[in-house]
Amino acid sequence: MADPKGFLNHGREVAKSRPVDVRLKDWNEVYVPGSLLPIISKQASRCMDCGIPFCHNGCPLGNLIPEWNDYAYREDWTSASERLHATNNFPEFTGRLCPAPCESACVLGINQPAVTIKNVEVSIIDKAWEGGDVAAQAPERLSGKTVAVIGSGPAGLAAAQQLTRAGHTVAVYERADRIGGLLRYGIPEFKMEKRHINRRIEQMRAEGTRFRTGIEIGRDLKATDLRRRYDAVVIAAGATTARDLPVPGRELKGVYQAMEYLPLANKVQEGDFVAPPVTAEGKHVVVIGGGDTGADCVGTAHRQGAASVTQLEIMPRPGEDRSPGQPWPTFPMLYKVTSAHEEGGERVYSVSTTHFEGDEHGNVQWLHLTEVEFIDGRLTPKPGTERKIPAQLVTLAMGFTGTDRDNGLVDQFGLDLDERGNIARDADFQTNVPGVYVAGDAGRGQSLIVWAIAEGRSAARGVDRFLTGASDLPAPIRPTDRSLMV
Fold it and tell me: Where in this chain does the record put each 4Fe-4S ferredoxin-type domain (predicted)?
């Protein structure tokens, strides 16, 4: 245990953010570098040795949170890093991007602010990189078996690293020009600088994982040909089919899916463009969708110099405290102010877009909306509430409906889909095609980064057992497991 009275003696402190007027001038991460280390030992001491660590239930990876909290409290960073990596391949990703369902399940959170688990996690891994505690773990011997991983997001990378360390020869295929999936081109630089991905890729290369970019399975390489080349295949292609908004005016220029808009800003940071082909500069921007992707669009538009930013959400504004219907330790839907929201803009709830209006050149100029309310359990427009707002750039951030079907991957493999349109799999994450496995959003549907890594680790065990007859790799979750929600 850390400090037996830590949670009594210390309040919750989180990472400090750089001033808004400063951080809007660059694309660096919003937090003050090094601001956590002076406070993190005390924060880790708030972990209360609760007997039954419900944070384990909140985290699908089964992270050993009380253990590495104790090591962080004692400033034993090497041991903390070892415990952290025992269950998580990429804690610098989750420590920056995960919404921390572990904190929602923290026992201290019943009647006090929860332990800053996410901040402790990122402090440990950053200290580990700084101290040289993160090294390549190449296998002692090779199995002679080969595995192809389709997709280089968190699920694909986790599966690839686990299988490489088990001694298999692994090649990761990515249709984009760089490795990382949505981590690379969907997450803005101000949320996670891409140097964190780059050094993990170098670690994986040193371990023996091979990477093939610019190859889309189904289009550039037939799925059937890939299956013949490798002893096993892991599909970790994500759920990249975006939910659309079929209203009049959708075809106007200036209306984009979020994943058409966000990657262009990231490509500027990679040096591919001097300026993005689609920019918010000087424009009235409307973001449709109130989730994390919508917030990413908001922060990106601020940095590009938007004239105004408005974020629309069809659901009512969540409360700031747990409702009776979302008791501890479930993950509650709460009103959340992200760093992007701190930077400005307006958030409008309980509204639905009716149509877009353009100018004579086919460019979007106005968004027409109406307020909505629940009547008999259905969202219904409120008469007399119609209005329009200026909109010269609109981004649709309404989530994703499933894996890409247009490239032929699903049909070429002959894969079965479940009732939700995801790729079906058995208890070992294997599809109906022997030797073909699926991990991450392609099989689970749109989810969190921590679930993607857990899926990649679990699918790796299934593949390893398929190739060798047995496996010592961990499998933290089953395909049927779901978040701790009501």
Answer: 38-69
